[in-house]
Amino acid sequence: MIIQLSSTINNFQKDSIVKKVSEFGYKVSEVKTQKGTYLISIGKKEFDIRQLGFLSGIEDIHRVSDDYKLVSGKWKVDRSVVDLGDGVFIGGNSLAIMAGPCSIETEAQVELTINHLKENGVQIMRGGVFKPRSSPYAFRGLGVEGLKMWHKKAREAGIKIISEVMQVSQIADMYDYVDVFQVGARNTQNFNLLDELGKVDKPVMIKRGISGTIEELLYSAEYVFSAGNEKLILCERGIRTYERASRNTMDVNAIPILKEKTHLPVVADPSHGIGIREFVEPIALAALMAGADGIIYETHQKPEEAYSDGQQTLDFNESARLIRKLLKAYELRETAF
Amino acid sequence: MIIQLSSTINNFQKDSIVKKVSEFGYKVSEVKTQKGTYLISIGKKEFDIRQLGFLSGIEDIHRVSDDYKLVSGKWKVDRSVVDLGDGVFIGGNSLAIMAGPCSIETEAQVELTINHLKENGVQIMRGGVFKPRSSPYAFRGLGVEGLKMWHKKAREAGIKIISEVMQVSQIADMYDYVDVFQVGARNTQNFNLLDELGKVDKPVMIKRGISGTIEELLYSAEYVFSAGNEKLILCERGIRTYERASRNTMDVNAIPILKEKTHLPVVADPSHGIGIREFVEPIALAALMAGADGIIYETHQKPEEAYSDGQQTLDFNESARLIRKLLKAYELRETAF
Amino acid sequence: MIIQLSSTINNFQKDSIVKKVSEFGYKVSEVKTQKGTYLISIGKKEFDIRQLGFLSGIEDIHRVSDDYKLVSGKWKVDRSVVDLGDGVFIGGNSLAIMAGPCSIETEAQVELTINHLKENGVQIMRGGVFKPRSSPYAFRGLGVEGLKMWHKKAREAGIKIISEVMQVSQIADMYDYVDVFQVGARNTQNFNLLDELGKVDKPVMIKRGISGTIEELLYSAEYVFSAGNEKLILCERGIRTYERASRNTMDVNAIPILKEKTHLPVVADPSHGIGIREFVEPIALAALMAGADGIIYETHQKPEEAYSDGQQTLDFNESARLIRKLLKAYELRETAF
Amino acid sequence: MIIQLSSTINNFQKDSIVKKVSEFGYKVSEVKTQKGTYLISIGKKEFDIRQLGFLSGIEDIHRVSDDYKLVSGKWKVDRSVVDLGDGVFIGGNSLAIMAGPCSIETEAQVELTINHLKENGVQIMRGGVFKPRSSPYAFRGLGVEGLKMWHKKAREAGIKIISEVMQVSQIADMYDYVDVFQVGARNTQNFNLLDELGKVDKPVMIKRGISGTIEELLYSAEYVFSAGNEKLILCERGIRTYERASRNTMDVNAIPILKEKTHLPVVADPSHGIGIREFVEPIALAALMAGADGIIYETHQKPEEAYSDGQQTLDFNESARLIRKLLKAYELRETAF
Predict the structure, then answer these.
(1) What is the Rg, in whole angstroms, of the alpha carbon atoms belonging to chain A?
(2) What is the ipTM of this complex?
(3) Does D135 touch chain A (CB under 8 A)?
(4) Is there a contact between A224 and A232 (Cβ–Cβ < 8 Å)?
(5) Which of C5, C22, C84, D50 satisfies CB 3.0 to 4.6 Å to C88 for a cystine?
(6) What is the mean pLDDT of chain C?
(7) How far, in Å, CA of B133 to CA of B126, rounded?
(8) Is B44 a residue whose pLDDT tops 80?
(9) Residue ranges of chain D with pLDDT lower than 50?
């Protein structure tokens, strides 16, 4: 059960509510986010919700039978839209396209990418400065200095930045230079990281775990939300299966299922979802038709020379064509059907 | 290596070719299909293909490095189109839509379904008369008598029939009453069944195994082709993974990968691919945008009362809406991009 | 619910029972096996079992909540033991060891293998004469002629034979020459084959499907049992997962779980379970300690020259050492703990 | 290539080696651990190793073709043994048994567990004070205060402690109170955590990821080793598959494979491996026979009342019986075969 508190509630009123709910045998957690205050009440006994309704300070009460509560689609009438500022949104009535290299490599690369994005009307650039790598001997990214360089150029161009945060100590280092924190597939259940991101007032995009379930992804989002941050985006990026003909198996099913289970925006990453450059386009279009609110993919001026993930990275011509097709398919999905 | 023989070749010429190829250390299998005769030559030694080219009776020679040969996309310039007669095709320049109930149940049901299909311009009806069921105590289908009843009504209406064949002895029983034999996901590696279907002059659609790889599906098709039947269609229907929020995981990646690896038409089954009625539509559209040549799905006048698979079956309103959207999306994919 | 009928029941008595059970809203199937006659009654309504107990002709009544009934461990007090004749058993108070090549290849090979088995006290020889192969161009076995040759030598030596049957038509061909029919991992859900094997009075060993669930394996056994054949053995042989360091993932968990869920004997195949020759021994010992009633593995006089599966086949020295260790470990498990 | 440096090497000598190796086109990383200094050299060109051998300051040179180097079994003649002090070891010529509750709950529980372990000769106690939980509303452990309480009692009893560390900041907090840091299955690829644990002089046990490959586990160990800490143990704890009859699928294959690929000790966790209390014993014995150097499992005075994982936790009677059987089976494995 989620009890939304009125913004004018006083402590005495709140205590009365907590006391009453506890009397029904429910455990109560208070959650304060950027947008409101909630009492999450977990218990098993049935009782008549009207026994609470007369108390002062309550804005609304929602029964939510899911084990995740705040991210559940069962209580929120409107789908959440994440505002990145300057008229850039993820979710709602537009398609969010996020593109850029796997790794931030050089100033020249950043400039070329930004020009490509601006020419094609893309407002959000992806790129890694901290790279999780299986082998300790591989390139691990340019770090915060690379991020600062990138941020400077992106700000000048009016481009928003999404970049992966790998550990708690990086949150503060990155805070001033990113518009969206990305939680990678290896950190979907790094609960300490999620807790800390819940205390931050910046959007967070959580990628599904390498073999994470849809339910686990929702729980991970619940961690961030219940720690205070409502600005959440979920990302399907393919799962690990027995099939070896593709890097991962894009779970296109997850898109309509997530859209029904949660009010949060859902984006798809076809680059990791299939892992094969020539097939990123059809998989991106498939994810879009399945209902995705946005697409995030990898592009580079010379994929063959990329420091990482070159085999799944589009060149700028392929990227421009994909953007054009995405917009047409989005228009069909939203208006012409 | 595939050696396509000329239609006017004589035995003496053929023997000369086989002898020559054997001298290079290659094992030769002769394959005779409805459309031609091929010598499949398997070996490791490299040799100059021109050493064969001068022999009489050869139409064309193709190097094919894949372990499956005849179904490989590497040797055939044009994609295969399967002709069902009366202007009905799977593959080529049209979208093949196949719809109908999981199980054929009653005459009334067949009539209602045929009417629904005709109203919406669908030319191929699916339905099972032999049902593979996990439990021996479950409904196993109406059998051949049901098929005859269905066939009579379908012929009158000009509708083609696709239906599952479960064992060798059913091939002869069904032959006169189906337009496409379907090999189900539990029989993808029933090699005896595939061998026998290779001797038949009717199209065969092979579904991917419950946890079959893309490569295994291609090998299964190679069985049918090498036994003499070129009229083949492949079907992606979801694979078994750890995820429990859907019945199967629709492997949308398999569609562009198969379209590149083979010249055969590729269709998708969103009903089994996700297994949840309300999400069949977005998954069907996703599969289409990924490149499918056709969509096969389950529909029933009252899904709640279907003998089997009701939870993933569309009613006729939902089906009509899906058909409309599929045609619009297909038009976008083929022309408007 | 399983109603075991008395061996002296008459038709009038049986009809009365069926009528009574049907009145409770239950669907009744009669099952006649080598050992008895059962009425399998499936329904949802609760009723007092004593309302049946007074009827004549009933030996025993068992409530079985599992969806599979006859193979369930819930109704049979004693574990089943499969008798191969001449004092050879699978299940019960001995360890069944079954060894031999993947494929029967030559007379010399059969003789060498039989000698090896006799020297080491092994009574059951495995070997394939019909080989399911992914590629149609691979060796598919010696067929029935090979089986007859093998059978002649095995009979002379007092060795029992287990061999795979791939399709219905082979049952009659093989009947006189095998002691146990093996259903392979690609045929676990070939329901027609299972039905027909239920009509045969010879033991059947069913391998778990390539990615079959434990429950599906039990249902497949229910097919054979409910068609009339109680002489059943189940075999765990590894499942398909994402891990690529081994051919399959030996699901050692399945052994104690199956032993609890069913009264049938459970054997393990470590050769396919890991697929790596040097590790067959530890996996065989692991499966034994997990509770297996028997071990089936591949051995060949020269594994490097085997027609198939050489990479997972033991030579005779390795095989002799494994047998010695299995017997010691079995003794520890049964007596010394 | 791993170049082990002599303990008396001087900087001038080291620079000469690095220079020489770099000239061959190899990238060199210096690794200093508790036990020695290594130059890890990664490159592709072949050269005669004797061209290095004459240089001063080299103890030994090993070619290692695996991508992980320091943990590879290809260069180290002797298997590693991890010394916990006071005559307690993991690896080598003894079986390491580690037992205790999922979560540390109360002083009484700790005392009862310690008594149970001492009575049965177990020297290492497991228990969690930081609990990774899918849901943010679940019990997350007693934290450092709980660890201190536990540590005090364990020290008095002469019992060693293994406990999970979830994030970098906890390393310093836990350092004085644990004998082995455990990295949980959700953190196997938390590369920052691994890096930091490489700087610590305490043993680290890394659990395989929830769906991690064997190779990824070895890479994760390489992270810790290459950051300076050789005191490493690997743990197989079951993987995520499609099978739902058990919590995880115990990958018993991984044990002999790991034992061959690495010189590090390998232990098994049957509690998580199957997740069903009554089957923990057979799976523990199976893992032992597959070659495990140790077994870690969950036990609690009243499993039904445990704060977490009660369904897979042994009571003390079951635990005592398991220990007795493990020791007998270990004796058989090591001496009587």
Answers:
(1) 21
(2) 0.94
(3) yes
(4) yes
(5) C84
(6) 94
(7) 18
(8) no
(9) none
If pLDDT is split at 50, 70 and 90, which confidence band does C76 have? confident
A219 interface with D at CB cutoff 8 Å: yes
pLDDT per position as a tens digit, B3-19 = 999 999 999 999 999 99
Nearest to A211 among D136, D193, D211 (CB): D211
Positions of CATH 3.30.70.1140 in chain A: 2-62
Q: Which CATH architecture has domain B2-62?
A: 2-Layer Sandwich (3.30)
The set of residues, in sequence order, having a beta carbon less than 8 Å from that of C44 and lying 6+ positions away, is C25
**What whole-number distance in Å separates Cα of residue B216 and Cα of residue B254?**
12
Using the CB atoms, write b or e for B34-71: b if 16+ within 10 Å: eeebbbbbeeeeeeeeeebeebebbeebbebebebbbb
Nearest CA in chain D to A215: D134
Residue D2 has, within 13 A of its CA and on its CB side, a CA count of 24
- D82-336, which class in CATH? alpha beta
Task: Pick from D253, D255, D277, D334 the residue to mutate for testing the C interface (most C CBs within 10 Å).
Answer: D253
Are the beta carbons of C214 and D328 separated by less than 8 Å? no
Name the residue facing B240 among D211, D240, D242 (closest C-beta).
D242
Chain C CB contacts of B191 below 8 Å: 132-133, 136, 166, 186
- What are the structure tokens assigned to B324, written together? 């409309």
Apex A259 CA angle, A257 and A261, nearest 5? 70
* Residue B63 pLDDT > 80: yes
Full 3-state SS string of chain C: CEEEECCCCCHHHHHHHHHHHHHCCCEEEEEECCCCEEEEEECCCCCCCHHHHCCCCEEEEECCCCCCCCCECCCCCCCCCEEEECCEEECCCCCEEEEECCECCCHHHHHHHHHHHHHCCCCEEECECCCCCCCCCCCCCCHHHHHHHHHHHHHHHCCEEEEECCCHHHHHHHHCCCCEEEECCCCCCCHHHHHHHCCCCCCEEEECCCCCCHHHHHHHHHHHHHCCCCCEEEEECCECCCCCCCCCECECCHHHHHHHHECCCEEECHHHHHCCHHHHHHHHHHHHHCCCCEEEEEECCCHHHCCCCHHHCECHHHHHHHHHHHHHHHHHHHHHC
Q: Are B211 and D242 in contact (CB < 8 Å)?
A: yes
Distance of CA B335 to the CA centre of its chain: 25
Where does chain D hold its CATH 3.20.20.70 domain(s)? 82-336
**What's the confidence (pLDDT) of residue A82?**
98
Amino acid at B17: I
Residue A245 contacts C where some CB pair is shorter than 8 Å = no
Give the pLDDT of residue A49: 79
> How many interface pairs between A and C have CB atoms less than 8 angstroms apart?
8
Residue whose C-alpha is closest to residue C16's, from C47, C57, C67: C57
Among the partner-chain residues A215, A241, A289, the one whose CB lies closest to the CB of B329 is A289
Axis crossing angle, helix C143-157 with helix C107-119, rounded to the nearest 10: 30
- Segment B260-281, tens digit of pLDDT: 999 999 999 999 999 999 999 9
Strand order in the sheet with C37-42: C27-32, C37-42, C2-5, C58-62
Phi-psi sector, B121: left (phi>0), alpha (psi -120 to 50), beta: left
CA atoms within 13 A on the CB side of B78: 6
pLDDT for D31: 92
Round the CA-based radius of gyration of chain D to a whole number and report it.
Answer: 21
- Residue D97's SS3 state is strand
User: Which residue type does D197 have?
Assistant: L
Q: Which residues of B234-271 are buried (b: 16+ CB within 10 A; e: fewer)?
A: bbbbbbbbbbebbbbbbbbbbbbbbbebbbbbbbbbbb
Mean pLDDT, chain B, whole residue set: 94
pLDDT range class, residue B77, cuts 50, 70, 90: confident
